[in-house]
Design a protein that fits this description.
Oligomer: single chain
Radius of gyration: 18 Å
CATH superfamily: GMP phosphodiesterase, delta subunit
Strand order of the largest sheet: 2-8-7-10-11-5-12
Number of domains: 1
Distance between the termini: 36 Å
Helix content: 10-25%
Shape: globular
Number of helices: 4
Structural class: mainly beta
Order of helices and strands: EHEHHEEEEEEEHEEE
Number of strands: 12
CATH class: Mainly Beta
Strand content: 35-45%
CATH topology: Coagulation Factor XIII, Chain A, domain 1
Largest sheet: 7 strands, mixed
């Protein structure tokens, strides 16, 4: 069951392994006609900026001087002025065995569920590293998605044998070279062998009509990088592309396997 909504727009709910006796009910619910895919769940969090990227000269120099093999910090990804060409970490760096099992988006105005992606998971949480070969996903939405104002997003995930401190997501959305929005969300602390549900609520930015039209006419040129940090160390990097020209009955998310960096 999801945690209740708070005024801050975010809740985090944890269950330890000893409370998983009702897992069968969850699995049964996952088989009642809702979309199920294998891997690569993306999350959207806390709107920061809907403006074009504005990077100071000294910041551009820092980005240019970064080399493969250097530590990837939150400060570094926040300075990026475009969608990344390569993954900035390998799947093996997820040493906490964080596995995403569900991602749901709903329109708060109408209550309609826009997207519900689920992954079949065993009742017992195992401490096995999944190589996460599906780190790339394509979302197909109708043009009406771009007119939504308030969105509720729910993320469900499990944690392995290591406690997770300062779990943080930074997500950057671009249309071509234009920064549409940056999300920076602190998920917090998760105990070992826990199942976690995090729900957050945010407002989508207003976009210029010309930009909206271009995004609709050019599917998959809207892209995002999702960077997951634990204690300021990058452990996961997911990528996504978005199309906004699908019919109302074709809204979905397609997982596409990608090789590591």
């Amino acid at each position: 069951m999801l945690g209740s909504k708070e005024e801050a727009g975010q809740t985090l709910h944890e269950e330890n392994e000893g409370e998983q006796g009702e897992g069968g009910e969850e699995e049964e619910a996952m088989e009642q006609g809702e979309m199920v895919v294998d891997g690569g769940i993306e999350e959207w969090n806390g709107f920061i900026s809907g403006e074009a990227a504005s990077v100071a000269p000294e910041e551009e120099e820092v980005v240019a001087e970064w080399k493969p093999g250097d530590p990837v910090t939150p400060q570094y990804v926040l300075r990026l002025n475009g969608y990344t060409k390569d993954y900035l970490c390998s799947p093996e760096e997820n040493i906490y065995n964080i596995n995403f099992s569900r991602f749901k988006i709903r329109d708060l105005g109408s209550g309609a569920v826009i997207l519900d992606i689920k992954k079949h998971c065993p009742t017992e949480i195992t401490d096995v590293t999944e190589l996460d070969t599906s780190r790339f996903i394509q979302y197909r939405f109708s043009p009406a998605f771009l007119s939504l104002r308030e969105i509720g997003a729910t993320l469900e995930f499990t944690v392995g044998s290591k406690a997770v401190s300062r779990f943080r997501l930074i997500e950057r959305h671009f249309f071509r070279s234009l920064l549409l929005k940056t999300f920076d969300f602190e998920i917090g602390f998760c105990i070992p062998y826990s199942r976690n549900t995090c729900e957050h609520i945010y407002c989508l930015p207003d976009l210029e009509p010309e930009t909206v039209e271009e995004m609709i006419d050019n599917p998959f040129e809207t892209r995002s990088d999702s960077f997951y940090f634990v204690n300021n160390k990058l452990i996961m990097h997911h990528k996504a592309e978005y199309s906004f020209n699908q019919g109302a009955d074709q809204v979905n998310g397609d997982i596409i396997g990608e090789q590591g960096p």
